[in-house]
Amino acid sequence: MTRFKKIYGHCNVTRGYETTDGFKLAIWVNEQRANKNKLPKDRLEKISKLGLDLDPSRNQKNDLINELIIFKKQYGHSNVPREYKTGDGYPLGRKVKALRSSRTLKSMSAPFKKQLASLGFVFNLYSDDELATGRPKTKS
Fold first, then answer.
1. In angstroms, what CA-CA distances link 29 with 96, 117, 121, 134?
2. How confident is the model at residue 131 (pLDDT cuts 50, 70, 90)?
3. DSSP per residue, 73-94
């Protein structure tokens, strides 16, 4: 892991990554994450000093919430356009679109939903009629 960080400058090991000598670093990282509550204190300290994120899902949610807060302050709402990216390239529009998928909504934790709702996040952009017919309402 130390060598990976020296080479790439981060600890975001991609799926399936192996070192040149055949060590399956991606699998090792996943094992550390899966066993984070059982790891010895000294290993946790070393991992922390390296900057390896043992809970990337939680941190990704925090990043999304923070970017949504900034967007709402700037634009006065949280209906992020699909292709919107922040100044540093964070694909907020794509992330928000993914949140609205039915699969994501079903598996979303209640506290995370509550956080989003507190920002005025609209979970369903369409009425039940529009969803049933697959067509947006026309204006009369």
1. 28, 33, 34, 43
2. very low
3. HHHSS----TT---TT---HHH
Rounded CA separation 65/31 (Å) = 27
* Alpha-carbon distance values, 89 to 9, 11, 31, 41, 130 (Å): 19, 20, 30, 36, 32
Residue carrying structure tokens 């989003």:
116
pLDDT for 34-84, tens place per residue?
998 999 999 999 998 998 888 877 778 888 888 999 999 999 998 999 999
Cβ atoms within 10 Å of 95's Cβ, excluding its own: 17
Long-range contacts, stretch 74-80, CB < 8 angstroms, 24+ apart: 77/120, 78/116, 78/119, 78/120, 78/121, 78/122, 79/122, 79/125
